[in-house]
Design brief:
119 residues; 4-stranded antiparallel β-sheet; 17% helix; disordered N terminus; single chain; two-stranded antiparallel ribbon; alpha+beta
């Protein structure tokens, strides 16, 4: 994670960040995501924007936190979740391809069994 990240209050526009890439983000392996206890105890919700690559096998790698709100407390949980996930591969012309610099938005909401995420 970059040390000069400045949190913003509005959720990012993923379609714009992902340059209109058409990919139905479907997990084939989905680990349980744990809500950070400190934030759960405070009743705090938040989100983390992560940029990374997707391999031809559907594995997220080169993951970096780009932004977050309201604090960095959710960052580790978001990265851990994506590292443990596997996705259907991105395909171009029917062939599995590497997808570089893809943005994921991990949303932490109370009252949900698992926090949501958007690709």
């Amino acid at each position: 994670m970059s040390l000069n990240v400045i949190p913003i209050s509005e959720k990012p526009n993923l379609q714009m960040l992902n340059r209109g890439v058409e990919w139905k983000l479907r997990r084939t392996i989905s680990p349980k995501m744990l809500y950070p206890k400190t934030e759960f105890d405070k009743g705090q919700e938040g989100w983390v924007l992560v940029r990374g690559d997707i391999s031809k096998q559907g594995i997220a790698n080169n993951l970096n936190v780009v932004d977050f709100s309201p604090s960095a407390a959710f960052n580790s949980a978001a990265i851990r979740y994506l590292r443990g996930s596997q996705f259907e591969p991105y395909k171009q012309k029917g062939k599995a391809s590497i997808l570089k610099d893809y943005y994921f938005l991990i949303i932490f909401e109370l009252g949900e069994e698992h926090p949501r995420y958007k690709g």
